């Protein structure tokens, strides 16, 4: 899945789009990547002499990857729900194990645990050079997007 398809499926856009490419997509899991640019403005303040990617943004990369999984699953249903958007409802047990720095390439893996009506329960992780940097469980709910353009 390329950038154009990613933008078609989820509402996030630069500078707040944290998925560059989807490498693998199955019925209940997804694997995506993001190259962390060295010149991001956020590194000027987090931290100037030791730039580190904020953990909350690493979690956001996982959440956006999960949104892509949900959107692709909805796209494949007969009752195509293009006017629905997944919105984060819960973050559970976020664990930060490795630092991510400017220039690093990260991989996000998200797996669907359960779907109850319009709520999706997932678990995800960020890998840095094949090792876990972040682990998090989360849920999102599909809501009506009345502002879709």
What does this structure look like?
The protein has about 150 residues and is of the alpha+beta class. It has one domain: Roll (Thiol Ester Dehydrase, Chain A). It contains two helices and six strands. A six-stranded antiparallel β-sheet has the order 1-2-4-5-6-3, with helices on one face. A hairpin with a 3-residue loop joins strand 1 and strand 2.
Span between N and C termini? Answer: 22 Å
Strand pairing plus helix content: what structural class?
alpha+beta
Number of helices: 2
Query: Any idea what the radius of gyration is?
Result: 15 Å
Average of the residue pLDDT scores: 93
User: Approximately how much helix is present in the residues?
Assistant: 10-25%
Strand content: 35-45%
**What's the structural domain tally?**
1
In CATH's first tier, which class applies? Answer: Alpha Beta
Which descriptors would you attach to this protein?
149 residues; six-stranded antiparallel beta sheet; Thiol Ester Dehydrase, Chain A; single chain; 41% strand; 19% helix; alpha+beta; 2 helices
Brief digest:
By secondary structure, the protein is of the alpha+beta class.
Helix/strand layout:
Blueprint: H1 3-9, E1 21-25, E2 29-35, H2 55-75, E3 84-96, E4 105-116, E5 119-128, E6 131-144
Antiparallel strand pairs: 1-2, 2-4, 3-6, 4-5, 5-6
């Amino acid at each position: 899945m390329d950038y154009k398809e990613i933008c078609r499926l989820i509402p996030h856009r630069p500078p707040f789009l944290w998925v560059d490419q989807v490498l693998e997509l199955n019925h209940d899991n997804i694997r995506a990547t993001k190259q962390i640019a060295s010149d991001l403005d956020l590194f000027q303040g987090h931290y100037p002499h030791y730039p580190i990617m904020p953990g909350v943004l690493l979690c956001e990369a996982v959440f956006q990857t999960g949104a892509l999984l949900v959107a692709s699953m909805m796209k494949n249903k007969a009752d195509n729900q293009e006017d629905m958007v997944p919105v984060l409802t819960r973050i559970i047990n976020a664990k930060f194990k490795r630092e991510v720095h400017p220039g690093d390439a990260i991989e996000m893996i998200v797996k669907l645990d359960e779907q109850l009506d319009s709520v999706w329960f997932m678990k995800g992780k960020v890998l840095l050079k094949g090792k876990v940097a972040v682990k998090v469980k989360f849920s999102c709910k599909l809501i009506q997007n009345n502002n879709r353009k």
